[in-house]
Specification:
Number of helices: 10
Radius of gyration: 18 Å
Order of helices and strands: EEHHHHEHEHEHHEHEEH
Mean pLDDT: 94
Distance between the termini: 12 Å
Helix content: 40-55%
Strand order of the largest sheet: 5-4-1-6-7-8
Shape: elongated
Length: 217
């Protein structure tokens, strides 16, 4: 077995949980749109926001126009600020998240946080202490690619200077773990709480806590 020198770690539902119910209720209210109209427009823009083709401001402007609302700069700015504030307010680190990162880091293992996300996630990771424990933040909206695209994995490995065979990838999504395995990365799927019925990817280790992952190093 190859020596393990790096750990690539997902964010949402791996290091932390986040309730987006408030986003789906409060942002349409601020925009003056129905929740249905907001949801339909946002779902169309989600992929572009996730790979940084649109900023949140540009996306919100487009949603407002589609809904027949004038995208006034002050309104767009207020929506962007509220979107960020709600993310920071609603995200909760799992109890094992920071201890896991500290433990792995203390063992001399390099860490890359690898997340499919939009622009406020960097602020979130900086505010909750995750960023300072990582050697690299590899965020889809900044890299221009989302998991399971190979590009985001190879970018993370390049940032750490570690080949695939020496890396472990931790995520809650079996499809993302499957791509990691295809790339020669050891993949670990974390399943918190009750299983969601998704079959684990072949060649993937399944765990229920990050402390189980730490024991692999």
């Amino acid at each position: 077995m190859a020596e393990r020198k790096a750990c690539l770690v997902d964010v949402y539902d791996t290091l932390l949980s986040c309730d987006f119910v408030a986003h789906r209720a409060e942002l349409p209210l601020l925009a003056g749109l129905s929740a249905q109209a907001w949801g339909a427009s946002y779902s169309q823009l989600g992929p572009a926001l996730g790979i940084g083709q649109l900023t949140k401001a540009e996306g919100f402007e487009q949603i407002l126009r589609e809904g027949g609302v004038e995208p006034r700069p002050d309104l767009v700015r207020a929506m962007v600020d509220q979107d960020r504030e709600m993310l920071l307010r609603s995200a909760r680190l799992y109890d094992d998240a920071l201890p896991f990162l500290r433990d792995v880091r203390a063992r001399g293992i390099k860490i890359a946080i690898v997340s499919n996300c939009s622009e406020h996630t960097r602020d979130l990771l900086e505010s909750n202490g995750v960023a300072e424990l990582a050697d690299a933040l590899v965020l889809s909206c900044e890299v221009g690619a989302e998991k399971p695209a190979a590009q985001i994995f190879t970018y993370a490995l390049d940032q750490l200077g570690v080949p695939a065979r020496h890396a472990v990838f931790v995520d809650d999504q079996p499809a993302y773990c499957a791509r990691a395995v295809e790339l020669g990365i050891t993949a670990v799927q974390i399943v918190r709480g009750e299983p969601d019925g998704k079959a684990p990817a072949p060649g993937t280790t399944v765990v229920c806590s990050l402390s189980d992952v730490a024991a692999m190093f």
